[in-house]
Specification:
- By secondary structure, the chain is of the alpha+beta class.
- 48% of the residues lie in helices and 15% in strands.
- A hairpin with a 2-residue loop joins strand 3 and strand 4.
- The mean pLDDT is 89.
């Protein structure tokens, strides 16, 4: 199992700006993805896992947008691909941000 393969580069969070993270989470689907990923475990990139009524290409776009914003990393295990929230690194770079976003997403604010 490998993290962050050359096929799925993940930016160094020192190079990621807050506006990049907020822009990535400005889409309701990606905000919902954040809520799912907040459990800390890797989630398969299969369409069935997510249950959104969108095309596969649209989900690929959402996965890429979150990865390029530094929010997630891709884990490759053979032909299986999963994503995981980079929670610890994000909390270190932007203290309290993820918790605040999750709290506001739950409360609907």
């Amino acid at each position: 199992m490998s993290n962050n393969s050359a096929e799925y580069p993940t930016p160094d969070l020192a190079d990621v700006e807050l506006v990049d993270v907020l822009r990535a989470l400005g889409d309701p689907i990606r905000l919902q993805m954040l809520r799912v990923l907040a459990d800390g475990v890797p989630h398969s990139k299969s369409m069935q896992e997510w249950g959104f009524d969108v095309q596969k290409s649209t989900m690929s776009h959402h996965f890429r947008t979150m990865r390029e914003a530094g929010l997630t990393e891709t884990i490759v295990d053979g032909r299986s691909h999963a994503i995981r929230l980079r929670r610890e690194a994000l909390d270190a770079r932007f203290p309290g941000l993820i918790e605040s976003l999750l709290a506001s997403a739950v409360s609907g604010r």
